């Protein structure tokens, strides 16, 4: 009989960490992108990579992406139609251009009004924010890909993107 | 403290043993057995499937271990760098209890690795392997 000590310990560390991040949030922060809170979206869009903040892309980008899940960056991320529809409404309602989003307009600056960018990492503003990140850092084995935000932004899951 | 641990582990053991009597995992295995018309599943075949390198799927994902790691009780890592919870039931007791989730990932991952869906026999073997890990 194995007693799951380790998951417990990890749980406690995570808890302590979230408390820390929360404390910082209360202190006020400019680099905040509200993380996904919907459990279905978290599960379906957060298992292969971080569940990206919906406010990082405009609504029309999410609509296009959700219509092409069978060709999702080389992966087949297809979902049943009911789940897909539910996720689309969540992403669209919380998109960067959905209004009431205080910080995302910053990241969407420079995106043409009809364009439907599919990568956050190709947004002009994202590229310029990261232009000083050296080449070796992108190739570091803990990073692997630009889309692995959490490798550098350790609090990305909580919505914080500082260095 | 020691007593507490004994009591807690006793309770955990009780919960776990009831779960093995007729849980969703056993239902799933029964379904695969019926579909495969199999006389039984083999953890050894499951392990072979898990570690084998295939050439029919995507070049960057030749094997289940590419993402799930060689140690079934250790965390895996998706190509995007995201951590994946271990596949061994002994350390991840809630795994394989949602049949729709299991089916969804078998479909996705077998296509990635083997270039085709897994057969009910293969799914049953693989599940038997990780349940025993």
TrEMBL record, chain A:
Superkingdom: Bacteria
UniProt keywords, alphabetically: Iron, Metal-binding
Keyword Nucleotidyltransferase: no
Coiled coil: none
Pfam families given in the database record: DHC (PF09626)
Signal peptide span: none
Name recorded for this polypeptide: Diheme cytochrome c
MF (Gene Ontology): electron transfer activity; heme binding; metal ion binding
């Amino acid at each position: 009989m194995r007693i799951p000590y380790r998951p417990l310990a990890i749980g406690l560390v995570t808890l302590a960490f979230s408390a820390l991040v929360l404390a910082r949030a209360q202190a006020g922060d400019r680099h905040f992108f509200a993380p996904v809170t919907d459990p279905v979206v978290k599960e379906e869009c957060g298992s292969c990579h971080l569940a990206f903040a919906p406010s990082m892309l405009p609504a029309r980008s999410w609509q296009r992406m959700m219509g092409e899940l069978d060709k999702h960056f080389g992966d087949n991320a297809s979902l049943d139609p009911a789940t897909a529809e539910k996720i689309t409404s969540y992403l669209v309602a919380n998109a960067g251009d959905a209004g009431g989003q205080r910080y995302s307009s910053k990241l969407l600056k420079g995106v043409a009004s009809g364009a439907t960018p599919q990568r956050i990492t190709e947004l002009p503003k994202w590229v310029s924010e990261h232009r000083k990140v050296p080449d070796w850092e992108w190739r570091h084995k803990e990073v692997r890909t630009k889309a692995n935000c959490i490798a550098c932004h350790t609090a990305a899951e909580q919505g914080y993107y500082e260095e | 403290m020691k007593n507490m641990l004994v009591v807690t582990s006793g309770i955990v053991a009780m919960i776990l043993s009831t779960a093995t009597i007729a849980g969703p995992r056993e239902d799933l295995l029964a379904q695969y057995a019926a579909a495969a018309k199999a006389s039984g599943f083999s953890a050894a075949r499951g392990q072979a499937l898990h570690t084998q390198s295939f050439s029919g799927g995507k070049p960057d994902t030749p094997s289940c271990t590419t993402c799930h790691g060689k140690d079934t009780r250790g965390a895996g890592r998706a190509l995007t760098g995201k951590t994946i919870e271990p596949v061994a039931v002994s350390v991840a007791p809630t795994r394989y209890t949602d049949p729709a989730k299991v089916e969804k990932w078998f479909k996705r991952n077998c296509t990635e690795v083997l270039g085709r869906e897994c057969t009910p026999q293969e799914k049953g073997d693989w599940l038997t392997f990780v349940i025993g890990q």
